[in-house]
Amino acid sequence: MHIDMTEREANQYSPLALAFLGDSVYEQLVRERILLAANMPAHKLHKLAVSRVCAEYQSECALLLQEQGVLTENETEVFKRGRNTKVNAPKHSTIAEYRNATGLECLFGYLYLTAQHERIDVLFSLCWEHGEDEFNEKIKE
């Protein structure tokens, strides 16, 4: 199914609805990268995926994208909408980490709805590169 909404249509969705979709978009990209990086048992694939889809890692990615100044003005607004939404953080992350992760997921959901797949690939690649050496070490374990 291909979705191609206008920015106005996508902005009609709540930040948490966008994050709901963006979480699955981001996780699918993580799973694809892991699978293509190494053929290994499913439990190890899952463990590696969890290390990349957790709030702590996603928060680091969100901060990295902001520090590098790669987000457009519109993308920054979408990210902030998600980040500033009231959420209850799980016990394993801080509220700041969880909010940043929600902002990142919101952005990925928004980009997906507006069919900006190339932009998703660019931003995801920057996220993936963050900690890639550590990831490669985990694959060897």
UniProtKB/TrEMBL annotation:
Domain RNase III: 17-115
GO biological process: rRNA processing
Record: active site: D23
EC number: 3.1.26.-
Pfam families: Ribonuclease_3
Gene Ontology cellular-component terms listed: cytoplasm
Molecular functions per Gene Ontology: ribonuclease III activity; rRNA binding
Gene3D superfamilies from the UniProt entry: Ribonuclease III domain (1.10.1520.10)
Keyword list, A-Z: Cytoplasm, Endonuclease, Hydrolase, Magnesium, Nuclease, Ribosome biogenesis, RNA-binding, rRNA processing, rRNA-binding
Cofactor (UniProt): Mg(2+)
InterPro entries: Mini3_fam (IPR008226), RNase_III_dom (IPR000999), RNase_III_sf (IPR036389)
Location of the protein in the cell: Cytoplasm
Function per UniProt: Involved in correct processing of both the 5' and 3' ends of 23S rRNA precursor. Processes 30S rRNA precursor transcript even in absence of ribonuclease 3 (Rnc); Rnc processes 30S rRNA into smaller rRNA precursors.
Oligomeric form and interacting partners: Homodimer.
Family: Belongs to the MrnC RNase family.
Protein name listed in UniProt: Mini-ribonuclease 3
Organism from which the protein derives: Ruminococcus albus
